Each structure stands twice: as C-alpha cells, then as structure tokens.
C-alpha cells in the first residue's frame, strides 16, 4: 500500500517537491506493446505548464519530461515507466519568515502538525506542482487507451469561473482549445479575461472554478463494484487534486432536488446496442459504464495565495499577517483542466485493464511465423 | 487488491446479495483490546433498518448481526472480525419478467454487460441492502474510535429532500434523533412528512436528498497525502454508496463561486492550539485534518424504483415498460444517513491507524507485574 | 491492505479461530460464469479433514462448507464468494493453566507479546485449523482454473517424513491417493505407518515432513516480475502455512551446490513449442512460467504439541513444564498436502487473471442472438 | 497494486533496466524525521557494486545514488523518496544475435512469451542490476531502523559456495568484512579464491551459493499473521531476488528431518524477558518475532551466463549454441549478500511500522515551547 499512489492495475506513484531537484511519476502496469515517446507525453505537459498563457503564474519552466525506464525502441515493455521532470526554476531566494509562518488556507499548518517538520520551499510536496506528475502519467494512460480502445476521447473544460457561468446553449466542443480558459463558450472569453486581469492587478484576489471532464465512447461494462466503482474511483481521483472541494457525476448534487420520474434515463434499443433518452446518470450505473458519455465535474477553490493580508500565526503561536507574494495564478482552476483529463484517462485505462488484464492474453510466438 | 474492500489499514470487505442466504462484512485491521459486542453493532444497524420508520420500505427484517470471529471475551483480538447478517425476508415469489428486463436507472443492464450474467433477485449485489454490511463495519470502527480517540463524535443528518431545504438558522443538533428524517430542523418535519406520503401514494414517485455528515474533535494531523488524503478517502467512501451522485467537503461546489478573500479561514492562537475564523475548508487542508469539524455532504439520487411506467428493453432488445412494484423507499436518502456515518467512522479510524499503527507499540508483559 | 489476505486479483481473506462459532474465507475476484457448488469445494475439504485417516488428529468435525454469497444458480457472478465452515466440535472443557502458560514452539507467547491478549482456546487464530479456510478457497480456485485453463493439473504429495525419504525411482503418480500419507512411493507405506504409530504411542513424539506440489500444463508466460514473480508468490503462499520453515523451487537449496553447466536447462524446439533438456528451474525463469512442470517443495516442522514435558514459563514469568494432551497429529505434514495444493491453485489462478483480467473482455450481449 | 513493489507500509517500487538511462527505487512510507543523506545510502551500494572485488564482474560503474525527493535538510519529510542511479557503463556494442536468441537459464524466453517483446540489452529488467535499486532502498530502511530501533543489527554472509561449506566451529562475526566473499570463516578464503579463479579462467563455469542473513535485537512482537507473517514476507523478499531458488528460516528444510523433542526451543525467564534454550525457530513463532536472532538462508543458483556452449533456439525456432561472453560473475551469490541484507532491513522496518504507524503519533507542536 503506497499512499502516494493511485490505480488498481495501472498504478501511478507521484514523487517530488516543488523546489527539489526533480519530480515525476513511477508508472507500473502499463501494458506492453504500446507506442510511447517523450514528445507524446510532453504534449499534455505543455498544456498544463505555468506561463503557457497569460492567465497563469509567471513561473517559467520547460517541464521537460524524460522517460528513464520501461520503454524500448519507442514501445512499452510492460515494466515500470519512470517519468522525470527536472525543476529548473528553483529561484534561489530568502524564504524569510515562510519557514515559521503558516499561510491561511495552505497545508503548511497541517503538514507541520502531522509530520513535525516540512519542506517549506514553495509548498514542498503540497504544491500544485505535484500535478505535473499526474499529467505526465496521464500521457502514458492516453497512449495505452489509444492502443486498446482507440475510439475513446477525453476532454476537459471550464464551465464556471467564480460566479460567471458558461451558457450551455452556446456550448462548442471545438471552441475549447481556442482560448486561454479551455472554455467551450467563446462568448464569455472577453468578459472572463477582463475579470481575471482585474482580480490579479486591482483586487489582489483569486477566484474559484468549475471544471467538467467528459469521456466519450467508453465501452459499456467498465467498472468494478462495489468499492472500485467507476464513479468512486473518479471521485477519489478528482478530489485528490490540490484545491478540489467537490466532485459530481452526471446530474450530481442537483440529483438531490429531482424526483424519480424526472431523473429517469429511459432505455431504447439502438442499432449498435442500448440507447438512452437522457444521461442524468453521467454514463455510470451501479459503478459500471453504460456506454454513454462519462461526465464528471469538480470544484476548484480560489487559491489562498493572494496579495491581500490575512491573519495567521507563527510556529511559536504569535500572531502575524500573511501576504503571499510571488508567482501565483489568480484562478488555479485553469490549470486543473489538463489535470482532470489526466486523472480521467488513468481511471478509464485502469478499469479497462481490470477487465482484460495486463497482456490481454497476447503472447509472444516462438517458431516459424504462420 | 480486493475490489470489494475499502480502507488502508482498517480494511473492510463486504459480501452478500440481497436475496442470498446472508450478507456481511469481513473486517481486518481492527486494533486488539477494543471492547466489542454484537449489541454495540446492532444499535447502528437498527438505525438503518428498513421498516424502522414509516418513511422507508416495508421490508421487515431484524437484520440481526452475529460476530463469527475476531472477538474473545467481548474484546477484539487483532484478528479478522467476521460480521454476518442473515437474510430472513427472502419472499419466495415469481420474479416474472425481471430476469430478462432492465430497469431504467438500475445496475441491471450494466451488470449484465460486464459479467454476462447477474443475480436478478432484488438487485443482487447492487442492492442497497449491501449498505447493511457497511453499517455493521462502521459499528466496529466506532468501537475502536471510542477506545483510541474517545472525544470524536460522528453525526449525519438530512439537510435537503428534493427541492425542500432545511433552515440553517433553526439547526438543532438535538433535533436529529427526534424525527423520521434525521433532520436537524424540526420545523420542516410536518411538511416533509406530508410530501413524502403524497409522493408514494399519489404521485407514485420518489425524490432525492442531501445528507451531511460531521466529525467533531478529530485531532489535527490525521490524513495521508497525496492519494490517501482525508478528503479523497471520504469522497470515495461516500461516492461508493448506492445512488450517491456527488460529494463535497466544507464549502464544496460553492467554492467555485468564491474569491480567495471570501474563502479564507484566518488563523488565530487559541488556548488549546490554533483556531480559525471560519471553516470553509471543512476541517481539511492538504488532505490533513485541522482539528476543526470535518464536514462532508453527499447527494442521493431519487430511486428509480417507482410505480410509474418507464420505457426500457428486454435482453433480446425488444421494448417494454417497467413499473417497479414492491417494497421501495420513496426517499432512499433517509437510510443513507447511518450509512454515511458508518463510512465517516471507517475513514477516520483508518487514518488514525495509519499514524499510530495497529498496536500503537503496546505489548503484552511477561514476568512479575510492576 | 488486509494482512489476513493473499492474492493480487484472486484475493482471499481468511477469518476465524479454532474454537469460535465458525471460520471461513472471503474470496474476491473470482471471474463470473464459473460452475461452482458446495460439493465441489467439499471434496477438497474432506481430503484435509482431521479424522480422515488414522494418522491425523482424532478431532471429528464434518467441516461442511456453506456458500453464502457470490454464486447464483450454481454459477459464480463475479461478486465476493463467502465460504463458511461452522465449528461443531468445540469441546466444552477446562482450559486449566493454558491461558496463563506458553507452550514451547507455539505462537502463544508471540501473540501475547504482540497483541497483549489472545484467544487461547485451541490456539485461536494461530491454529492449523485456519488452513481449512485455505483449502475451501483453493476449491474455488480449482473451479475457476478448470474453466479458464482446463489442462492444468495440481497435485501434492509427501516425499519425506523425518529421516525417511521416498525412493524417487519408485515414484508413482497413481499411488498418491492410495495411502494415508499421500505418498507417491507405495514401497515405504508400511514402514512409515509403523514409525508414526510408534512415535505417537511409545515415543510421545512428533516428526517433520517434506511436501512437494506440482502444477502441470501451466501455460508459458504466467507470472509478474519483479515482486509478483510466480516463485515469489508461491514461496510466500507456502511459507504462510502453519509450521512451514522452508520453501524451494525446482532444484531449490541444492542449486547452491551446483555449477552453471550442471544446472543448465538446454532449450530445443518441440512440435508444440520450446522444450527443455531438464527442469532444474522448476518451471519458472525470471518469475515467469516456462510451460514445464512447476515444482515446489516445503518443509513442515514437527508439531510442538507432544506428550513429552518441556520447560516453559507462565505469564508471570514463573517456570513450568508443559505436556500437550489432547488431539494432535504426530505428523502435521500429512494434512499440509491438500493445503499446499490449495495455495498452488490460488497462485496459479491469480496469475492467469493478472494476464487476462477478471472478465477477459467477455461481455453480456443485448439484442437478438446472432 | 503495483507488481514492481514490495512492502506493506514501507513500500518500495523499483524501476529501470540494465542498459537504460537510469534505474532506481521509489520509496514511500518512510517515517518523517529520519536523518538521511546520499552517502549513507552509497555505503551499502558500494558493498554490492560490481568490480568491487576480484570475484565479481568487471563492469565498472560508480553506481552513484542521487536523492531526488522526500529529504529536506538531510532529514526525511514523510513524503516519497526517489532514488536514482544513472547507468554510466552502457557499452555501445553490437548485440548481434542476442535479440533473437534465448539464453538457457535466462528470462529471455519467458519475457518474450509473456510480453511479446523484451529489452534484450543486458537482460533489461530481468538483469541482476535491478538489485542495485533494492540495496539503495535498503539504505533508507537501515536509516529508519537506526532511528526507531537503534539496537537492531542486520548482517549477511556466505556460508556455502558450490559444494564447499564453512566450518561453523570457526564462525567469526568479525571476519565477514575482511574477505571478498563476506565469509565468516577466514579459514576457507584461500581455497574458495583458488576455486573461483579456476572456475572462471579454466573451467568456464559458474557456481551456486548459500547466503545467511541475521537480524539481531529485533524486539519481540513484530510480524502480522496470517498472510503478513514475518517469515512469509522474508521468504517472498528473498525469493524475489534474481537467481534465488530456495529460502529457509531457522532450522529450515532440515526441520523435515527432526522430531518434536529435538526441535523444541524451551522457554526460561531471563532478567530482561523470556529466553530460549535454542533457536530452531529462527526467531519467529506464528509469524511474529520472539526477540531471538532472526535467521534466514537462501540458495543462489549458478549463473547461466558462462563461456561454455549450451544448446538453445532462436525466436524462429531454429537451433543454436549459446556462449555468454562479457562481464559476468562466476558466483553471483557474492553480490547477493548486500541484497539479502537490504531485503531483511526493508521487511523489519515494514513490520515495525505496521505496529507503530508512520508517525507513531508524534505531532508538530504549535505555540510557546514548553
């Protein structure tokens, strides 16, 4: 049991601190024979990278991934894949009072209370930088899915920033990659941009966000009741991301308001199998996929790293005021989009493997080719 | 890896189907030396039992728990505790078309798609009856918590039924046990009672609910980042309960709407340790407990087992209409209250054990008593 | 992580004490669609049962297994299988000094030292009676293997009792079931019978044994390096059996004495695949099966429960002499034969599942049969 | 579940291939507050390093370990520790026929049969080079043991090489570090040296070995029955090492030959607790430590990489002869000594943690120092 790992058969262990020499992911359980190169993973890391767009922190790091093991001649061998990302922008600086002060809303205080000590440089292990490891591992998951279930598509996007919501009537799948918010409603982009600039420059504030991740064309029958349900694993996967405070599937929290008749997804026979009148279930029944779109949403809280002073204490219990200077995103939810996609990919692959095993029964042939 | 298990060190495996001979929970990892008897567990099972109040299904079963192992002279020995509940109300009946028909909103269809066969009697393994096993295991967790962290209190209650919400201004901890809804606002009970009776008798419908579970006096420093965070594990625990579609911690989904200043829990030094100006975090920072109340909410969808006909198909693909007759709760959320409490207890105990181990270093003495 | 469980995907948790109400096994991960009935499991339990032959303890229990879950219409459903064996021969008796005395060579003293208390009745959880749970679970494994890899044969037998060895030149597979020792050399049976009778009646002593278990026709390619190697898992499986002190694969401990030339298994191409000049490897290379016979041996120590007095102490540290009266086998190794077979079956199935998954990709069809 | 990991709470995942860019170990579950530096780990790696003495392969690599995470200011933080060893001696060479030929006694053929492809350079993942990762992780375990149970001493040594045994009467603990065989009997060193030189140069052969590892001063009460027994875990740990074919505890395989009276370890009360007349049990009863020396032995087969030709086949099934040229140890057992020590350290620490948890309940203080 590794507490820094997730997944049943596709097992990922992330390691590394914000300001240590490197961070990465140890990926065990990837099937053999999957085409995999560093650039294939880099593509997803680049999407998450700070400094990628104007909305996110100014920390400039290439976040270049290296594959140290498990891949031979651009093909996975079925052995552990070690992914390493060197930390190159560890600014040498005076950490001043940070080592002895607890930032409100940060894990500073609880790490201290649990472990009796902490790596205070940039949040150490509790830094959002840990999510780079997840995105790298998600890149491996995507490559394996491409090999095993090529029709599956996974896509995340932002549906709410603070009190500003998208208009679902203008939802456009193709708009997502065209703006800095990964927002499917191009009509809100200007307003959101103005708002986030004001937050950072004038209000010295931050804001929360709601992310939705969808997996299309996942075959029916994936998921493992009762404690490895697809929704259970997705919920844990998303809630484990820094700053996430809530997760919902399909109708989600709104299901509490509905009646049974309103919530029913009626079933019809289509030409390729069962079809449904609606998707309140979010593509999952009894923890197993129905074949419909799998729909997950999660809420990201506003970062507590803001330029406005807040009351706190030092390790010795004396009071202080904390202002968080430096490179911080006004809306960390933006970068949570590729992270949510990566976690979705890992969970989907994991459940495909539970059903078909690591090798799927394929074996190397010996003897004359037939 | 057992897919029917939860917990890291306090490891519970539930087993059994709705209409098989029995169901139960295999509980491994309970520390030795904990006072435990069947009546201590029965107390919690009685709270969940169908037929317990007028709001829930009329299925009448005593749900009497037997302890088959792991307890000697009313004390746990540190070995696996087997809890068994016999199914006594397996009405012999004609299952008619059920074996060949998929009920909309049920796991019938996905179990068939995954396994190629299913125990169709009463939903088999996917029945809400599985939650009796959780409540029994939760009784063991409560007993162990009582021994290791006696100040901890765990309490669940309903805060919303359909579109009807409690008035938080009237929140009364002591009201919870005084009504059939485990509702902390006595002022809504009459209205809710009328509504649910109308739903069942006249509208032939069901309704969703929102449950909140709170753990008080959990010591600071409990939780295991990054993939065994307290909130991650609570999220998985609640999402694994039948019919749950969303889970949130503290501010939850509403955190998406807030700014960093609004969401800040400022820190002050109290006489017994750090105190906070508010609890937006729900008692958890970086996956570790702060010492504040741990607050979880989850949404329970309306049951799809209603007397109103809905479109569906048979195994051969032909269309049909389904009406679910028989013993069904109009609001399954009511019975989810003790289940949510049980899952909270299991998660809290599990994390206490991760920190202090199974025996906590206590050892039997040999030699003259000193 | 359950410490009372074994297996990666075929996950067995045993529970129960020697003199509690019942004991059994919770079996998770058995594939769906396997034919399984209680009599199919009972067959193997009967082989292990005390009182089955003259050589073993006189404790008379039917050891009747009940299937409480996971099987519907004599077919596994893919959900947890609960196997229960009631303890019927819990003689009510005066345990006298046993509760306060440590028997030399027993786990009495270490359970006390670890847990601070113990169920002293018949050894509690540390009793060899726990192995009945393994044999029951092994019955499930055998049924699943029969379904997935029908050519596999698993057979255990005794090759040494004390200083008496079989003559390998007289090895006869068919002789094994024909004597009370599961011995493949019929020529030693009379001598062994006389010896064990003398041990029990005259010498008040016990004796160790060596068991060999072979799995034939296991397909090549099974096993999961590096820490789930087939030999690693077999080693753990056998060493976890009560009284086992050593485990070896193929050439085993004797490999230390050999040179590389002597130990080489040369490879030739046969008509159905690779063939080998010998099987020093015991059917495993790099933790993966070669397709040859998988050969495991394990040593069972002589039981310390003998009628001869040995020095010991009481809980208060005062000296005492211990004589173990009652029902005890002079050679517990005999009953270890079916236990070893059961563990072999569980490991083999587990690794087949790691390769092909729980459902192997098979899915239930919906729509007109084609 | 990661198949490339071992340990319950002290969880080590090894990664890397013989000729890839690097290999290493991801170590999760090390308690916080342990003094740890790279040189502390390097000390043990140097002991294992090829080229360290004349007896082992001439491959010359510094095997310099880097700590990439989990350590801050030379102290563990309780987060994952990433250990990396770069491969510096990856001779660029023509692998010739190796990619298409299976070496007898190697995992070449089974990796191919399982995965359908393999990294054939130097054995890839199946290379003994993987054990460097174990030794590095063992260095972390030793550091943590030093902090939690400072009296524990762990020592391995060779007791047999081929048919040559040490004389137990000359056993000298202090002689072990004084010769190239880690042999406790200085009297055999000259003979063994001559023998191994002859094997390599003249006989073009290799030879097996028997290694013994002892842990002294392990407190009584460590171990977790029934499937996490100390002997079970030690057995798996040792059997997972390349080329190991058998493992035994205490009396081991010889226990099969003994009677109950001969095998009895009688108990007496000493001034610091129970004492025993002998240690046939090898320090473990019922899977739990007695406080006596824990004694494990394992047999290492002779390497199949020898200069003598052996029959084999190519991937296309055609026959060939294989001679293994290059850098290979005539007795790989020598280098297994530090590997066995490392595995012993990991298992002992793991079980200490199961009893006392990751933090042992220690918490960081906030407020005025008292």
Automatic annotation (TrEMBL), chains A, B, C, D:
Cofactors (names): FMNH2
Catalytic activity reported: 5-O-(1-carboxyvinyl)-3-phosphoshikimate = chorismate + phosphate
Annotated SUPFAM superfamilies: Chorismate synthase, AroC
HAMAP family, per the entry: Chorismate_synth
Function in brief: This reaction introduces a second double bond into the aromatic ring system.
Gene Ontology, cellular component aspect: cytosol
GO MF entry, a single one: chorismate synthase activity
InterPro entries (UniProt xref): Chorismate_synth, Chorismate_synth_AroC_sf, Chorismate_synthase_CS
Pathway annotation from the record: Metabolic intermediate biosynthesis; chorismate biosynthesis; chorismate from D-erythrose 4-phosphate and phosphoenolpyruvate: step 7/7
Database matches in Pfam families: Chorismate_synt (PF01264)
A GO BP annotation: aromatic amino acid family biosynthetic process
Subunit structure: Homotetramer.
Protein name: Chorismate synthase
Cofactor binding remark: Reduced FMN (FMNH(2)).
Domain of life, source organism: Bacteria
NCBIfam families in alphabetical order: aroC, PRK05382.1
UniProt KW keywords: Amino-acid biosynthesis, Aromatic amino acid biosynthesis, FAD, Flavoprotein, FMN, Lyase, NADP
Family note: Belongs to the chorismate synthase family.
Residues holding FMN: 125-127, 242-243, 286, 301-305, 327
Enzyme's top EC category: lyase
Binding-site residues for NADP(+), renumbered to this chain: 48, 54
EC code: 4.2.3.5
Signal sequence bounds: none
Naturally occurring in which organism (per UniProt): Octadecabacter arcticus 238
């Amino acid at each position: 049991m590794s507490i820094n790992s997730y997944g049943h058969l596709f097992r990922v262990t992330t390691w590394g601190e914000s300001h240590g020499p490197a961070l990465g992911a140890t990926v065990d359980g990837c099937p053999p024979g999957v085409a995999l190169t560093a650039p294939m993973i880099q593509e997803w890391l680049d999407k998450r990278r700070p400094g990628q767009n104007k909305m996110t922190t100014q920390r400039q790091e290439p976040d270049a991934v290296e594959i140290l093991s498990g891949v031979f001649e651009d093909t996975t061998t079925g052995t552990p894949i070690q992914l390493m990302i060197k930390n190159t922008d560890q600014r040498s600086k005076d950490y001043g009072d940070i080592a002895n002060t607890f930032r409100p809303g940060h894990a500073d205080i609880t790490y201290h209370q649990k472990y009796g000590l902490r790596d205070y440089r940039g949040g150490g292990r509790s830094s959002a930088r840990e999510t780079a490891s997840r995105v790298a591992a998600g890149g491996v998951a995507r490559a394996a899915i491409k090999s095993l279930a090529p029709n599956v598509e996974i896509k995340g996007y932002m549906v709410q920033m603070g009190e500003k919501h998208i208009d679902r009537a203008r939802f456009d799948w193709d708009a997502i990659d065209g703006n800095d918010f990964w927002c499917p409603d191009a009509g809100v982009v200007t307003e959101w941009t103005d708002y986030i600039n004001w937050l950072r420059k004038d209000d010295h504030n931050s804001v929360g966000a709601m992310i939705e991740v969808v997996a299309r064309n996942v075959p029916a029958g994936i998921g493992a009741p009762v404690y490895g349900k697809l929704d259970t694993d997705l919920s844990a996967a998303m809630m484990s991301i820094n700053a996430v405070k809530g997760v919902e599937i399909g109708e989600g929290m709104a299901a509490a308001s509905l009646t049974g008749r309103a919530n029913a997804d009626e079933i019809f026979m289509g030409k390729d199998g069962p079809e449904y009148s609606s998707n309140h279930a979010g593509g999952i029944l009894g923890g197993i996929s129905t074949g419909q779109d799998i729909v997950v949403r999660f809420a990201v809280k506003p970062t507590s790293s803001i330029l406005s002073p807040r009351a706190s204490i030092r390790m010795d219990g004396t009071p202080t005021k904390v202002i968080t200077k430096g490179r911080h995103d006004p809306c960390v939810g933006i970068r949570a989009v590729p992270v949510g996609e990566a976690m979705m990919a890992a969970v989907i692959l994991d459940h495909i493997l539970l059903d078909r095993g690591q090798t799927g029964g394929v074996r190397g042939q010996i003897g004359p080719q037939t």
